[in-house]
TrEMBL record:
<dbReference type="Pfam" id="PF13649">
    <property type="entry name" value="Methyltransf_25"/>
</dbReference>
<dbReference type="GO" id="GO:0008168">
    <property type="term" value="F:methyltransferase activity"/>
</dbReference>
<dbReference type="InterPro" id="IPR029063">
    <property type="entry name" value="SAM-dependent_MTases_sf"/>
</dbReference>
<dbReference type="GO" id="GO:0032259">
    <property type="term" value="P:methylation"/>
</dbReference>
<protein>
    <submittedName>
        <fullName>Trans-aconitate methyltransferase</fullName>
    </submittedName>
</protein>
<keyword id="KW-0489">Methyltransferase</keyword>
<dbReference type="InterPro" id="IPR041698">
    <property type="entry name" value="Methyltransf_25"/>
</dbReference>
<dbReference type="InterPro" id="IPR051052">
    <property type="entry name" value="Diverse_substrate_MTase"/>
</dbReference>
<feature type="domain" description="Methyltransferase">
    <location>
        <begin position="42"/>
        <end position="130"/>
    </location>
</feature>
<keyword id="KW-0808">Transferase</keyword>
């Protein structure tokens, strides 16, 4: 496990996750629409605190939410929908998880890039229904007018110095013969209002900007820089963010 991946085991990182924008409701409509087989069971890879698993659980037969971080799973259990009877949490890596398939859908938010792809797919493919799809879901703010002023603060403090904004996990999987892409979709943009304080705090839910990796002085410097960048756009301490999600789905494959 890399040092950055290990940061998701910190309780402060798991707590900060609640400040990330939610997935648009359209994401869950599309996910349910991709299920064509029975049983309507879903496997959520690297579930974190359940941003996908919790809203999806009431709409399917079962969601197995797998994550290696006890702190993340604990946070997810406490959040809205975290105790739904259709939701089964498991603290484990996918390579050794107890899978209760067959699964008609597999979901992955911001998680696959942390996993050993060949081992992960070799583990899950035997547990899929004939038409099951793996859906990679990304989401976040778009068209932020303050973004160019925030980027320098991120670059100055981030522990990930080799970040490639052009990297595509879907393209990387296809290039390695691990994924047959079936389709993609962008959700309609939605408005999400967030306080400046919460907007700043969500950065600390990321592996590269976790407070646990910073001194108190460095964290304060980062927070002040972001606050200065967004202040001209805030109204009474609130920011209006435009959130959009992208879904890419297809059939996972075993290498070789």
């Amino acid at each position: 496990m890399t040092e950055l991946a290990a940061t998701f085991q910190y309780e402060a990182v798991a707590e900060a996750y609640r400040h990330r924008p939610p997935y648009p409701d359209e994401v869950f409509d599309r996910l349910v629409g991709l299920i064509t087989d029975d049983p309507r069971r879903v496997l959520d890879l690297g579930a974190g605190e359940g941003a996908i698993a919790r809203p999806l659980a009431p709409r399917v037969e079962r969601v197995d939410a797998i994550d290696f971080s006890a702190a993340m799973v604990s946070a997810g259990r406490r959040r809205t929908g975290g105790d739904h009877p259709n939701l089964a949490w498991q603290i484990n890596s996918i390579e050794t998880a107890d899978l209760a398939g067959p699964y008609a859908l597999v979901t992955a938010g911001a998680s696959l890039h942390w996993m050993p792809w060949q081992d992960t797919f070799a583990r899950i493919v035997p547990h899929l229904t004939p038409n099951a799809q793996l859906v990679v879901v990304g989401h976040g703010p778009i068209d932020q007018p303050w973004q160019t002023d925030v980027i320098p603060a991120i670059q100055r403090h981030s522990r990930k110095k080799d970040f490639d904004p052009e990297f595509s996990i879907v393209e990387a999987l296809r290039d390695r013969g691990l994924f047959d892409l079936t389709g993609t979709a962008l959700t309609a943009p939605i408005l999400y209002r967030q306080t400046v304080a919460d907007y700043i705090e969500q950065f600390h839910s990321t592996s590269s900007l976790a407070r646990d990796l910073m001194t108190a002085e460095e964290a304060a410097d980062f927070d002040a820089a972001v606050e200065k960048a967004v202040r001209p756009y805030a109204v009474d301490g609130w920011l209006d963010l435009t959130i959009q999600a992208e879904l890419s789905w297809g059939r996972p494959k075993i290498a070789g």
